[in-house]
Amino acid sequence: MPCMMVQTQALGQVKGKTFSCFLHQHQQTFLNQLREITGINDIQVLQQALKDSNGNLELAVAFLTAKNAKVPQLEEATYYQTALPGNDRYISVGSQADTNVIDLTGDDKDDLQRAIALSLEESNRAFRETGITDEEQAISRVLEASIAENKASLKRTHPEVWSDSPNPYDRKRQDNCPVGLKNVGNTCWFSAVIQSLFNLLEFRRLVLNFNPPANAQDLPRNQKEHRNLPFMRELRYLFALLVGSKRKYVDPSRAVEILKDAFKSNDSQQQDVSEFTHKLLDWLEDAFQIKAEEERDGEKPKNPMVELFYGRFLAVGVLEGKKFENTEMFGQYPLQVNGFKDLHECLEAAMIEGEIESLHSENSAKSGQEHWFTELPPVLTFELSRFEFNQALGRPEKIHNKLEFPPILYLDRYMHKNREITRIKRDEIKRLKEYLTVLQQRLERYLSYGSGPKRFPLVDVLQYALEFASSKPVCTSPVDDLGASAPASGTLLAQTLPSTVEQQGPSSSDVPSTSPVQRSVIHKPFTQSRIPPDLPMHPAPRHITEEELSVLEGCLHRWRTEVENDTRDLQESISRIHRTIELMYSDKTMVQVPYRLHAVLVHEGQANAGHYWAYIYDHHQNRWMKYNDISVTKSTWEELERDSFGGYRNASAYCLMYINDKEQYLIQEEFNKETGQILVGMDTLPSDLRDYVKEDNKRFEKELEEWDAELAQKAQQEKLLSQIPRAPAPSPAPVQAGEPEYLEQPSRTDISKHLKEDSVQAINKALAEQEDRGPEAIMDTAIKLEYTRLLKLAQEDPPPECDYRLRHAIVYFIQNQAPKKIIERTLLEQFGDHNLSFDERCRNIMKVAQAKLEMIKPDEVNMEEYERWHQDYRNFRETTMFLMVGLEFFQKKSYMEALLYLIYAYQNNKELLSKGPYRGHDEELISHYRRECLLKLNEHAAALFESGDDQEVNNGLIIMNELIVPCLPLLLVDEMEEKDIVAVEDMRNRWCSYLGQEMEPNLQEKLTDFLPKLLDCSTEIKGFNDPPKLPSYSTHELCERYARIMLSLSRTPADGR
């Protein structure tokens, strides 16, 4: 569907073989785009560039921006549309330089007949040869790029993050969550467009209920029909899977393959996504047209695609004093973004071209035109042009300006039926804006008063003058007032000319004297320069009488009050005018045509590369959903604003889809005609599609069953292996059942050795206090002493390098408010440890503790909770080791080794902190070094890429693909971490900066292949390698190494922290 598609009639402009068909459909839109991108306003030059490039917009830009571009010296002419009697079509009035151009502006009927004949001849010749136009072939570029990427990805060895999870449960649809679309290689644009259309229930019904023509066996009659019907079949299958699949996401490769096979092109350059949207709807329109023509009964066939997406507007204008009026069909409506702050400003600019004052006056030579909607489509799509050509850099750039758009858009002011009242309101707004400009200029004079380079608010100037006048008068000069404190003459001169003395070098007169007088005037900046106590802090008048002061204060007070009142009046007037302009179209007659925002298609990246996703409104749940390839998540209007308005990061909307809010059939669910109940899921599908989805679901269920069987088989094998008898290893004593593994395992001396020493010390203290008591009393005293010691450690506020939680689990439990029963049992476990059996006294206490453990009833201590607390402590120690090892590698500048440790430290720590603030370590610290690690690696990979050496370039891309790209979602998932988001933007911008640079073709190919992965904005956390193995540390070693690394960090300034 072209942006500005005129009605399909024979009359057209002829500008060359391949350009004629293209011109009448796309010329005005492409001319506007070229004018915006290149800044060239000469229509003849723009038309010639389009012709020379055969309609290729990017090639036309290259022609126009080349240094040696030749600008034809022709008479100035402007392209406007004018009317022919009895015809809706526009004809071009402009360049006469091309000999193939037939002038249709005159009265010569032969010229008109020759134009019609030549246009038909060329259109038929192109259609006979290929069945499709050159314009249609252009879209195959983006499709071939996507398929080539998909095939290449099968040959390359990608890290796990880019492949499907081997576990089918990771790919299983959750409840009734919407189904995503897999990115099969540079096809995020396909997903965004298809999901937006699929979620239009009326469009979905049209596609699902499409039946191929009954005489399909007689087809194809041409390539168009050969292409459209298979594509519709695959689109129906794809839509059916999106309705009823049990998979989290489905693969659209077959639909993309058909689109690719329909066109043959050697050019794999990616085109504008909006072009794909045009052509997709064109293909759908053609497919429904075939069906409509078959079913017509002598009446003109109605095409549902045209009914849904096409509208009409009336162009009213004046060309060189002659009025014209024409009707034109449109599909997607293009809007310029640059220079406008909201959607209404864009629309106002698009609906008015040139000088429109002449429309209401006679005998005017000015030219201009207005557009008025006569018929709006149920689905209204706006294309936002966010690209311009940077003449200085010689490349296209994306416009990141902020552009606001409302969730409800009232279009009454643009309707033809309201044009008289709209013109009145536009004139009123113009008058108000002119008055507003005058008021703002007057206000600016009050707020920036003065004639010099520095200006201040006038009310402050008057206040300062009042403060000066009211200060206590002084009778002496500020210099004379220094009195005896001033340096002697000559010394003052010497102090004011230090540079001269230094340049000339010492002389006999410069040698300081040893006399007391000379020494007394040596400059002392912190003593002699101090202001004497009696000197006023502010300048003050020398002489002022009471009468003068009274008059001056009265004037200044009165003037200040007047200025304050004037300023307030101006600000209130400006606010009232703004409010009046905002409410200009809010009366009841101008809010009768509401359109609700249905979908926003977003692009993040630069002009040459980026990633696409969509925000789509769920009209039944009244919430926004974010469709980002395989990821479909709940969203909010606030998130949509941030990503779509622009001005924040590199993301902004490039397409807005509004639907008529009064046409409820667009989003209305289907009902069972017999029961009246709403049809959902598989019940909405025709029988053939229901069977298709059931077959696919059976295949997926088989995958799940095979996975379950494989896991069961592995579990059985492990069970059999565990039953094989093994030679017993020498061990002092069996470990007590249920004992936490980090407390003691006889073959290890890590934690239990440390706890043994603590236990013995507590027992010795208890024996010293109660030597004559029995083992039970001594044990109770020892436990109390140990608990008191640990409680004191838990209550201290030690420096970062001294973390008492690493010394004992009880400290960790106390700080995190573990239940008393958990702490008591843990202490009994400590004193019941078998390592205390080395002497009689400790052995007796050990036995008492073990006996008490056995006496604890199951309902007294929740063992599941007990195990959870000890598991959390194990996780805390493991997180500490990940952090410690990662920081040690970081300090050695081994960033690749450090990254994985820091990633797991951050993820584990985040999980711990979700349970309580003292469960883990400082999140900002880990986040900082994880971020720094990624930035260092990104710089290293970019340097390798810049070297140009094949091996170095490949190594750099391996670092990016296998280390950095998989980590980006981890930085983007928490939107409160502004530093992480900025770091991601810095890394992306570094690689996007290469787009405009000259480089070898193989480097350009690798960069083009890699950038979509880097710019993928999905925040879905995907698979990583297994966590790195950790060394075994005793508690003493762990505390010592942790203290050492934290002390070294405190001595090393961390950038950005």
UniProtKB/TrEMBL annotation:
Keywords, comma-separated and alphabetical: Coiled coil, Cytoplasm, Hydrolase, Isopeptide bond, Nucleus, Phosphoprotein, Protease, Repeat, Thiol protease, Ubl conjugation, Ubl conjugation pathway
Reaction catalyzed: Thiol-dependent hydrolysis of ester, thioester, amide, peptide and isopeptide bonds formed by the C-terminal Gly of ubiquitin (a 76-residue protein attached to proteins as an intracellular targeting signal)
Subcellular location: Cytoplasm; Nucleus
Record carries keyword Hydrolase: yes
EC code: 3.4.19.12
GO molecular function, one term: cysteine-type deubiquitinase activity
Coiled coil (UniProt feature): 690-717
SUPFAM superfamilies membership: Cysteine proteinases, UBA-like
GO biological process: protein deubiquitination; proteolysis
Top-level taxon of the source organism: Eukaryota
SMART domains reported in the protein's UniProt record: UIM
Record-linked PROSITE patterns: UIM (PS50330), USP_1 (PS00972), USP_2 (PS00973), USP_3 (PS50235)
One annotated Gene Ontology cellular component of this protein: cytosol
Top-level EC class as recorded in UniProt: hydrolase
Segments forming domain USP: 179-661
Subunit structure: Homotetramer, inhibited form. Homodimer, active form. Interacts with ACTA1 (via its C-terminus); the interaction occurs for all isoforms but is strongest for isoform USP25m in muscle differentiating cells. Interacts (isoform USP25m only) with MYBPC1; the interaction prevents proteasomal degradation of MYBPC1. Interacts (isoform USP25m only) with FLNC (via filament repeats 17-18, 20-21 and 24). Interacts with GAPDH. Interacts with SUMO3; the interaction sumoylates efficiently USP25. Interacts with SUMO2; the interaction sumoylates efficiently USP25.
Family note: Belongs to the peptidase C19 family.
Record function comment: The muscle-specific isoform (USP25m) may have a role in the regulation of muscular differentiation and function.
Protein name as it appears in the record: Ubiquitin carboxyl-terminal hydrolase 25
Taxonomic path: Eukaryota, Metazoa, Chordata, Craniata, Vertebrata
